[in-house]
Amino acid sequence: MKQEFTRIAVKVGSNVLTRRDGTLDVTRMSALVDQIAELHKSGVEIILISSGAVASGRSEVHPQKKLDSVDQRQLFSAVGQAKLINRYYELFREHNIPVGQVLTTKESFGTRRHYLNQKNCMTVMLENNVIPIVNENDTISVSELMFTDNDELSGLIASMMDTQALIILSNIDGIYNGSPSDPNSSVIREIGHGKDLSNYIQTTKSSFGRGGMLTKTNIARKVADEGITVIIANGKRDNILVDLLQHPEETLCTRFIPSDEPVSSVKKWIAHSEGFAKGEIHINKCATEVLNSEKAVSILPIGITHIEGEFEKDDIVRIMDFQGNQVGVGKVNCDSKQAQEAIGKHGKKPVVHYDYLYIE
Ligand SMILES: Nc1ncnc2c1ncn2[C@@H]1O[C@H](COP(=O)(O)OP(=O)(O)O)[C@@H](O)[C@H]1O
Ligand SMILES: N[C@@H](CCC(=O)OP(=O)(O)O)C(=O)O
């Protein structure tokens, strides 16, 4: 059977892997591993992003005194991640497939050098037929340095590793066009560019998840805009992964249609680096209009009205339009002092060159 994709990222949410009582659902894990093994053997390269550390650690330790949320997360994830990876290791070993653990933090993607280092690590694993199993290093990533959730992490990995698809497995069949519990609502099968979904998404989260459906849809849109198909499907359904790849038409899920305009590797990094922005570049109305057109343009000093924050050359900055809305992210070509001096002047070098500018 011909498959549409040859390299995919699969994200498995906490709820897929845990039973109602919070214990690790080894039967479900085993079923998913069997499917990943089948795809792997048919030649598909797979990167697994698996949540579940905190959820699986919770049932293992019973603290004597009440712990705050940070202590809880650190304790449960330290115990739970060991348990989780151990299970994966054993389950994949039955298929003779080696797996490797990649624990990462948001900071590990902060500079281009760090980013490429992470990319190299996973590339060498794939080249050696090892399936990377990625999770956030919850023991050391705290508050503002955390990913919103593993949906954000999985988007970053899919983008960094140039996968053709990102499959997000949750405990629901896809995005519903209303409350999932309302019998009149149904799963939206395809989502094209620019579709606003905010009216459909409820703020309720599944019991063990972190970000909820809203982060899933935001990430999905961003990743699809970079040319990667994103699929949200139910990881609790039997054979879901194999069906999604081998019988895409008949398998219930929400599919984000990818943009057909390729995005360069460095722009993908910039697109996912917003959290590291050191400053803001505010542009005037004329520059905003040119940026919104189809033309490939750089941010020139003549179009800048003011600059906020202090940055060094090669730092990441936010690009704000004349109304103060963020319209993009870019890597600066000079420091903030030089940029300040050039504001409004003709014939100066771009502050952000087009090649390092990601427009949202
Ligand atoms: N319109 C919607 N369609 C589908 N699910 C929704 C919608 N609005 C809110 N949700 C909720 O989002 C949950 C999935 O997100 P989340 O809890 O983050 O899962 P995961 O643990 O898999 O990351 C669903 O269980 C559902 O309760
Ligand atoms: N790193 C955490 C993941 C938390 C998280 O994002 O969970 P989910 O929303 O279920 O993907 C863990 O392993 O428990």
Task: Give your account of this protein's structure.
The chain is of the alpha/beta class and 360 residues long. The chain has two domains: 257 residues, Acetylglutamate kinase-like (Carbamate kinase, 3-Layer(aba) Sandwich), CATH 3.40.1160.10; 83 residues, Archaeosine Trna-guanine Transglycosylase, Chain: A, domain 4, CATH 2.30.130. Helix content is 33%, strand content 18%. It is built from eleven helices and 13 strands. Strands 3-4-2-1-5-7-8-6 form an eight-stranded mixed sheet, with helices on both faces. Strands 10-9-11-12-13 form a five-stranded mixed sheet, sandwiched between helices. Helix 2 crosses helix 4 and helix 6 runs parallel beside helix 7. The protein starts with 6 loop residues before the first strand and ends with a strand. 41% of the residues are buried. The mean pLDDT is 90. The ligand N[C@@H](CCC(=O)OP(=O)(O)O)C(=O)O binds next to helix 1, helix 3 and strand 4. This is Glutamate 5-kinase. It catalyses: L-glutamate + ATP = L-glutamyl 5-phosphate + ADP. Keywords: Amino-acid biosynthesis, ATP-binding, Cytoplasm, Kinase, Nucleotide-binding, Proline biosynthesis, Transferase. It is found in: Cytoplasm. Belongs to the glutamate 5-kinase family.
